[in-house]
TrEMBL record:
Gene source species: Citrifermentans bemidjiense (strain ATCC BAA-1014 / DSM 16622 / JCM 12645 / Bem)
Keywords per UniProt: Oxidoreductase
UniProt entry tagged with the keyword RNA-binding: no
Domain Ketoreductase: 6-183
Protein name (Swiss-Prot/TrEMBL): Oxidoreductase, short-chain dehydrogenase/reductase family
Protein backbone atom coordinates (compact mmCIF):
# COMPACT_ATOMS: atom_id res chain seq x y z
CA UNK A 1 0.00 0.00 0.00
CA UNK A 2 1.37 3.37 -0.96
CA UNK A 3 1.52 5.55 2.18
CA UNK A 4 1.42 8.96 0.50
CA UNK A 5 -2.07 10.41 0.68
CA UNK A 6 -3.39 7.79 3.11
CA UNK A 7 -5.03 8.17 6.52
CA UNK A 8 -3.30 6.08 9.18
CA UNK A 9 -3.94 5.30 12.85
CA UNK A 10 -1.01 4.27 15.08
CA UNK A 11 -1.56 2.91 18.60
CA UNK A 12 1.00 3.48 21.36
CA UNK A 13 2.10 6.58 19.44
CA UNK A 14 3.59 8.45 22.40
CA UNK A 15 7.00 6.80 22.44
CA UNK A 16 9.41 4.19 21.12
CA UNK A 17 8.49 2.54 17.82
CA UNK A 18 5.03 4.18 17.78
CA UNK A 19 6.29 7.73 17.83
CA UNK A 20 8.96 6.93 15.24
CA UNK A 21 6.22 5.41 13.07
CA UNK A 22 4.20 8.63 13.23
CA UNK A 23 7.27 10.64 12.18
CA UNK A 24 8.10 8.17 9.38
CA UNK A 25 4.53 8.16 8.05
CA UNK A 26 4.55 11.97 7.88
CA UNK A 27 7.85 11.91 5.95
CA UNK A 28 6.33 9.40 3.52
CA UNK A 29 3.49 11.84 2.79
CA UNK A 30 0.58 10.38 4.78
CA UNK A 31 -2.42 12.73 4.47
CA UNK A 32 -3.44 12.31 8.11
CA UNK A 33 -2.06 10.39 11.08
CA UNK A 34 -4.20 9.60 14.11
CA UNK A 35 -1.67 9.30 16.93
CA UNK A 36 -3.38 7.21 19.60
CA UNK A 37 -2.24 7.02 23.21
CA UNK A 38 -3.68 6.44 26.63
CA UNK A 39 -3.63 10.17 27.37
CA UNK A 40 -4.12 12.95 24.84
CA UNK A 41 -1.36 14.98 26.54
CA UNK A 42 1.16 12.28 25.54
CA UNK A 43 0.57 12.90 21.82
CA UNK A 44 -0.67 16.52 21.82
CA UNK A 45 2.89 17.72 21.18
CA UNK A 46 3.00 15.74 17.89
CA UNK A 47 -0.15 17.48 16.62
CA UNK A 48 1.47 20.87 17.35
CA UNK A 49 4.54 19.93 15.25
CA UNK A 50 2.49 18.84 12.19
CA UNK A 51 -1.15 19.69 11.44
CA UNK A 52 -1.65 16.31 9.76
CA UNK A 53 -1.44 14.67 13.21
CA UNK A 54 -4.60 14.28 15.26
CA UNK A 55 -4.27 13.08 18.85
CA UNK A 56 -6.66 10.29 19.87
CA UNK A 57 -7.23 8.92 23.36
CA UNK A 58 -7.07 5.13 23.27
CA UNK A 59 -6.77 2.43 25.93
CA UNK A 60 -6.78 -0.80 23.92
CA UNK A 61 -8.01 -2.92 26.84
CA UNK A 62 -11.21 -0.86 27.27
CA UNK A 63 -14.02 -1.79 24.88
CA UNK A 64 -15.62 1.67 25.12
CA UNK A 65 -12.32 3.41 24.32
CA UNK A 66 -11.69 1.17 21.29
CA UNK A 67 -15.27 1.71 20.03
CA UNK A 68 -14.96 5.48 20.49
CA UNK A 69 -11.68 5.54 18.52
CA UNK A 70 -13.26 3.59 15.64
CA UNK A 71 -16.21 6.00 15.61
CA UNK A 72 -13.94 9.06 15.80
CA UNK A 73 -11.63 7.87 12.96
CA UNK A 74 -13.94 6.26 10.38
CA UNK A 75 -11.92 7.09 7.26
CA UNK A 76 -8.69 5.17 8.01
CA UNK A 77 -6.86 3.27 5.26
CA UNK A 78 -4.22 1.75 7.52
CA UNK A 79 -4.30 0.75 11.21
CA UNK A 80 -0.96 0.02 12.88
CA UNK A 81 -1.49 -1.91 16.12
CA UNK A 82 1.75 -1.09 17.89
CA UNK A 83 0.70 -0.76 21.58
CA UNK A 84 2.21 -3.47 23.72
CA UNK A 85 3.70 -4.36 27.09
CA UNK A 86 6.50 -6.67 28.21
CA UNK A 87 6.87 -7.62 31.87
CA UNK A 88 10.29 -9.13 31.01
CA UNK A 89 9.93 -12.25 33.16
CA UNK A 90 9.56 -16.00 32.86
CA UNK A 91 6.76 -18.45 33.59
CA UNK A 92 8.20 -19.33 37.02
CA UNK A 93 8.58 -15.71 38.17
CA UNK A 94 6.68 -14.79 41.31
CA UNK A 95 4.14 -12.60 39.47
CA UNK A 96 3.93 -14.75 36.33
CA UNK A 97 0.15 -15.25 36.42
CA UNK A 98 -0.53 -11.52 36.69
CA UNK A 99 2.18 -10.71 34.09
CA UNK A 100 0.68 -13.22 31.67
CA UNK A 101 -2.86 -11.86 32.20
CA UNK A 102 -1.78 -8.27 31.53
CA UNK A 103 0.34 -9.15 28.49
CA UNK A 104 -2.47 -11.21 26.97
CA UNK A 105 -4.94 -8.41 27.75
CA UNK A 106 -2.91 -5.76 25.91
CA UNK A 107 -0.87 -7.65 23.31
CA UNK A 108 -3.48 -10.18 22.21
CA UNK A 109 -6.99 -9.14 23.34
CA UNK A 110 -6.33 -5.41 22.83
CA UNK A 111 -5.03 -6.02 19.32
CA UNK A 112 -7.95 -8.33 18.55
CA UNK A 113 -10.43 -5.67 19.76
CA UNK A 114 -8.79 -3.05 17.52
CA UNK A 115 -8.89 -5.35 14.46
CA UNK A 116 -12.57 -6.09 15.04
CA UNK A 117 -13.53 -2.45 15.66
CA UNK A 118 -11.76 -1.11 12.56
CA UNK A 119 -12.56 -4.00 10.19
CA UNK A 120 -15.81 -2.48 8.82
CA UNK A 121 -14.09 0.80 7.84
CA UNK A 122 -11.10 -1.04 6.40
CA UNK A 123 -13.34 -3.36 4.37
CA UNK A 124 -15.13 -0.30 2.99
CA UNK A 125 -11.82 1.33 1.95
CA UNK A 126 -9.94 -1.89 1.00
CA UNK A 127 -7.41 -0.93 3.64
CA UNK A 128 -4.66 -2.59 5.59
CA UNK A 129 -4.00 -3.79 9.17
CA UNK A 130 -0.42 -3.94 10.42
CA UNK A 131 0.20 -5.63 13.77
CA UNK A 132 3.51 -5.22 15.59
CA UNK A 133 4.30 -8.72 16.79
CA UNK A 134 7.82 -9.86 17.74
CA UNK A 135 10.40 -12.35 16.55
CA UNK A 136 10.11 -13.88 20.05
CA UNK A 137 6.48 -14.62 19.24
CA UNK A 138 7.89 -17.19 16.80
CA UNK A 139 10.22 -18.86 19.31
CA UNK A 140 9.92 -18.51 23.08
CA UNK A 141 12.60 -16.46 24.82
CA UNK A 142 12.26 -17.91 28.32
CA UNK A 143 13.56 -14.77 30.12
CA UNK A 144 10.56 -12.97 28.56
CA UNK A 145 8.45 -16.14 28.58
CA UNK A 146 4.94 -14.81 29.23
CA UNK A 147 5.46 -11.93 26.77
CA UNK A 148 6.67 -14.36 24.08
CA UNK A 149 3.50 -16.41 24.60
CA UNK A 150 1.29 -13.32 24.21
CA UNK A 151 3.11 -12.40 20.98
CA UNK A 152 2.71 -16.01 19.74
CA UNK A 153 -1.04 -15.51 20.25
CA UNK A 154 -0.68 -12.26 18.28
CA UNK A 155 1.01 -14.15 15.42
CA UNK A 156 -1.83 -16.67 15.31
CA UNK A 157 -4.35 -13.78 15.39
CA UNK A 158 -2.61 -12.28 12.35
CA UNK A 159 -2.88 -15.48 10.35
CA UNK A 160 -6.55 -15.87 11.22
CA UNK A 161 -7.66 -12.33 10.43
CA UNK A 162 -5.56 -12.35 7.26
CA UNK A 163 -7.62 -15.30 6.04
CA UNK A 164 -10.95 -13.83 7.20
CA UNK A 165 -10.39 -10.37 5.75
CA UNK A 166 -8.64 -11.36 2.48
CA UNK A 167 -11.94 -12.01 0.64
CA UNK A 168 -12.99 -8.46 1.61
CA UNK A 169 -9.86 -6.91 0.10
CA UNK A 170 -8.16 -6.04 3.42
CA UNK A 171 -4.42 -6.78 3.66
CA UNK A 172 -3.03 -7.96 7.04
CA UNK A 173 0.72 -7.60 7.61
CA UNK A 174 2.87 -8.59 10.59
CA UNK A 175 6.01 -6.94 11.95
CA UNK A 176 8.47 -9.19 13.80
CA UNK A 177 11.25 -7.04 15.30
CA UNK A 178 14.22 -8.25 17.32
CA UNK A 179 15.45 -6.03 20.18
CA UNK A 180 14.86 -2.32 19.57
CA UNK A 181 16.20 0.53 21.69
CA UNK A 182 13.04 1.78 23.44
CA UNK A 183 11.66 2.10 26.98
CA UNK A 184 10.62 -1.57 26.70
CA UNK A 185 14.23 -2.79 26.52
CA UNK A 186 15.81 -0.15 28.77
CA UNK A 187 18.06 -1.82 31.30
CA UNK A 188 18.53 -4.90 29.11
CA UNK A 189 22.12 -5.15 27.92
CA UNK A 190 22.18 -6.46 24.35
CA UNK A 191 22.65 -5.17 20.81
CA UNK A 192 19.53 -3.24 19.78
CA UNK A 193 18.29 -1.74 16.52
CA UNK A 194 17.31 1.93 16.50
CA UNK A 195 13.66 2.93 16.13
CA UNK A 196 14.57 4.87 12.95
CA UNK A 197 16.07 1.86 11.14
CA UNK A 198 13.22 -0.41 12.21
CA UNK A 199 10.58 2.10 11.10
CA UNK A 200 12.25 2.62 7.73
CA UNK A 201 12.12 -1.16 7.11
CA UNK A 202 8.51 -1.36 8.38
CA UNK A 203 7.31 1.40 6.06
CA UNK A 204 9.15 -0.11 3.08
CA UNK A 205 7.56 -3.48 3.91
CA UNK A 206 4.08 -1.90 4.10
CA UNK A 207 4.60 -0.26 0.71
CA UNK A 208 5.60 -3.65 -0.76
CA UNK A 209 2.70 -5.33 1.11
CA UNK A 210 5.04 -7.95 2.61
CA UNK A 211 2.97 -10.24 4.83
CA UNK A 212 5.86 -10.76 7.27
CA UNK A 213 8.30 -7.93 7.88
CA UNK A 214 11.61 -8.60 9.70
CA UNK A 215 12.87 -5.05 10.18
CA UNK A 216 16.37 -5.53 11.69
CA UNK A 217 19.43 -7.76 11.39
CA UNK A 218 18.61 -9.96 14.39
CA UNK A 219 15.03 -10.68 13.32
CA UNK A 220 16.19 -11.50 9.78
CA UNK A 221 18.78 -13.92 11.16
CA UNK A 222 16.36 -15.62 13.58
CA UNK A 223 13.57 -15.98 11.02
CA UNK A 224 15.98 -17.55 8.51
CA UNK A 225 17.34 -19.91 11.20
CA UNK A 226 13.78 -20.89 12.19
CA UNK A 227 13.15 -22.09 8.64
CA UNK A 228 16.38 -24.11 8.61
CA UNK A 229 16.62 -25.54 12.13
CA UNK A 230 13.79 -24.57 14.53
CA UNK A 231 14.94 -26.91 17.33
CA UNK A 232 18.42 -25.40 17.26
CA UNK A 233 16.94 -21.88 17.60
CA UNK A 234 14.83 -23.07 20.56
CA UNK A 235 18.00 -24.46 22.18
CA UNK A 236 19.88 -21.19 21.63
CA UNK A 237 17.05 -19.14 23.15
CA UNK A 238 16.76 -21.54 26.14
CA UNK A 239 20.46 -21.05 26.81
CA UNK A 240 19.82 -17.34 27.48
CA UNK A 241 18.30 -18.22 30.89
CA UNK A 242 20.77 -16.92 33.50
CA UNK A 243 22.56 -19.70 35.40
N1 LIG B 1 11.46 -2.77 21.86
C1 LIG B 1 11.63 -3.99 21.40
O1 LIG B 1 12.70 -4.60 21.52
C2 LIG B 1 10.49 -4.68 20.68
C3 LIG B 1 10.77 -5.87 19.98
C4 LIG B 1 9.74 -6.53 19.32
C5 LIG B 1 8.47 -6.03 19.36
N2 LIG B 1 8.21 -4.89 20.06
C6 LIG B 1 6.82 -4.40 20.09
O2 LIG B 1 6.80 -3.10 19.57
C7 LIG B 1 5.67 -2.40 20.10
C8 LIG B 1 6.12 -1.03 20.60
O3 LIG B 1 6.96 -1.22 21.71
P1 LIG B 1 8.17 -0.22 22.08
O4 LIG B 1 9.41 -1.02 22.03
O5 LIG B 1 8.06 1.03 21.30
O6 LIG B 1 7.88 0.01 23.63
P2 LIG B 1 7.33 1.27 24.45
O7 LIG B 1 8.18 2.44 24.20
O8 LIG B 1 7.16 0.75 25.83
O9 LIG B 1 5.91 1.55 23.78
C9 LIG B 1 4.76 0.79 24.07
C10 LIG B 1 3.57 1.65 23.75
O10 LIG B 1 2.37 0.89 23.97
C11 LIG B 1 1.49 1.70 24.74
N3 LIG B 1 0.55 0.89 25.51
C12 LIG B 1 0.84 -0.05 26.44
N4 LIG B 1 -0.29 -0.55 26.96
C13 LIG B 1 -1.32 0.09 26.34
C14 LIG B 1 -2.72 0.02 26.45
N5 LIG B 1 -3.32 -0.81 27.33
N6 LIG B 1 -3.49 0.83 25.65
C15 LIG B 1 -2.91 1.68 24.78
N7 LIG B 1 -1.57 1.82 24.64
C16 LIG B 1 -0.79 1.01 25.41
C17 LIG B 1 2.41 2.49 25.65
O11 LIG B 1 1.70 3.58 26.22
P3 LIG B 1 2.11 4.19 27.67
O12 LIG B 1 3.24 5.13 27.41
O13 LIG B 1 0.84 4.88 28.10
O14 LIG B 1 2.46 3.03 28.54
C18 LIG B 1 3.49 2.90 24.66
O15 LIG B 1 3.06 3.99 23.90
C19 LIG B 1 5.08 -3.32 21.16
O16 LIG B 1 3.98 -4.02 20.66
C20 LIG B 1 6.22 -4.26 21.46
O17 LIG B 1 5.77 -5.49 21.99
C21 LIG B 1 9.19 -4.20 20.71
Amino acid sequence: MEIAGKTVLVTGANGGIGRALVEGLLKKGAAKVYAAARTIEAVAELSKIDKRVAAVRLEVTHATSVAAAAEHCPEVDLVINNAGINRCAGFMAENAMENARQEIKVNYLGTLAMCRAFAPALIERKGCIVNVCSVIGLVNLPVNGTYSASKAAGHSLLQGIRAELAPHGVKVLGIYPGPVDTRMTSGQEMPKATTEEVVQAILEGIEKEQEEIYPDAMSKEVSAALLQAPKEVERQFSAMIPA
